[in-house]
Design brief:
heterodimer; A: globular; B: mainly alpha; about 0% strand
Chain lengths: ~210, ~170
């Protein structure tokens, strides 16, 4: 099972049952629900994770992820295969999430997921909350809250660039494909977003 | 725009925390089941906005819309150029409507069904508004209005000031 901590590229095809994505898509287009169920299982974690990191709300992420898969199913006939199914699905999820966030601008309700067991054993994270950190009393939960609040201050396209690249490990080219812009724009958004984040989180980052 | 000056290593380390946020245990066990149940129930994926329809139907239009969204100044420039184009069209259309024989403020009357020289009397007798005191215009409201005040101008031959003379005088 793919965990949310695993960076995954869009072209990284996870095919546990050995079935080709193209075959599953073809069958799903002809109304084969079992084939589509297989596609949902294959991509549910990455789609959910992207939406969750954008909204910082589990309930919203659940709704939007389900709606993205339902919309993709109803629009399968319009999928021409110009890109991979996953890129196309990702585009639907990203657009749905950005539209949702625009409608709820400045009305963020944070509902964070718990940190997994591995977080407390991650040497990078431990270094951040070690004695060398300016705020010694800070704990991981507080850091998690501050990080999510800082992310929510970014505009949707900037947040999406950071989430896809720095959290999910998607390449610049694939982000450009999903977001419908060029690679230069992705790089520039990433740089600006990181600068902003660094400013918001200055007291938690060692200089 | 490169990361050479500022590689954001500490920030990237902090962002790793996001990767450890996980949904409740067993969440993904029933996720696909929920999606498939909603699909079987014939449920649509929520209300689809016009923007979403454009995004799924025409990626080019969606890109243009995103561009407008990112640079609002472009909308103003586009609107201004469209207005200028419209005005140019109106001006050009007006010019092409002008009769070729009319020039120098003279108005020639031509029958639309006949050739220009079929009624030489009319063609050679342009109306001269300055002499009659009535300006001729294509505007139905203003065409019958005299150009000067009715009673203020003694030269107006159509209107004479009324004079009341008592019988004994």
């Amino acid at each position: 099972m793919l965990t949310m901590s695993e960076p995954a590229t869009l072209s990284d095809q996870n095919e546990p049952s050995g079935q080709l994505e193209g075959d599953l898509v073809r069958r799903a287009r002809h109304g084969d629900l079992a084939a589509y169920d297989e596609l949902v299982k294959r991509y549910q974690e990455r789609i959910y994770a992207t939406i969750y990191h954008m909204t910082a709300n589990h309930e919203d992420a659940n709704d939007l992820a389900q709606e993205s898969f339902i919309k993709a199913f109803s629009a399968l006939k319009s999928f021409k295969g110009g890109s991979s199914f996953y890129t196309w699905l990702y585009r639907i999820a990203v657009n749905k999430t950005i539209n949702f966030l625009k409608q709820r601008r400045n009305k963020h309700h944070i509902s964070l997921n718990d940190l997994d067991f591995n977080a407390e054993h991650d040497p990078d994270l431990m270094a951040l909350i070690s004695d060398k950190t300016p705020h010694r009393e800070v704990n991981l939960s507080e850091l998690q809250k501050k990080l999510n609040e800082a992310l929510l201050k970014l505009s949707e396209p900037h947040r999406m660039a950071v989430v896809l690249h720095d959290v999910q490990g998607v390449s610049h080219e694939e982000i450009a494909d999903v977001m419908g812009c060029n690679v230069g724009t992705v790089r520039s958004r990433l740089f600006y977003a990181r600068q902003q984040l660094q400013g918001y989180l200055a007291e938690y980052i060692k200089s | 725009m490169s990361d050479s000056k500022n590689d954001f290593q500490e920030l990237k380390r902090l962002l790793k925390l996001k990767q450890h946020e996980v949904p409740p245990p067993g969440y993904f066990n029933h996720f696909s089941g929920d999606v498939m149940a909603r699909i079987r129930a014939g449920e649509s994926a929520g209300p689809e906005t016009a923007l979403e329809r454009i995004q799924s139907g025409s990626p080019f239009l969606a890109t243009v819309l995103r561009l407008f969204e990112a640079k609002p100044g472009l909308i103003g420039a586009m609107a201004t150029s469209l207005c200028l184009l419209f005005l140019m069209g109106v001006v050009l259309a007006d010019r092409s409507d002008e009769p070729t024989g009319a020039s120098g403020g003279q108005l020639s009357i031509q029958s639309p069904s006949s050739a220009p020289d079929s009624s030489p009397m009319l063609a050679s007798a342009p109306l001269e508004p300055a002499e009659s005191g009535i300006s001729v215009s294509t505007n139905p409201v203003s065409s019958l209005q005299p150009s000067a005040s009715l009673f203020g101008s003694p030269q107006n031959p159509l209107f004479q000031p009324a004079a009341f003379m008592p019988a004994g005088h």
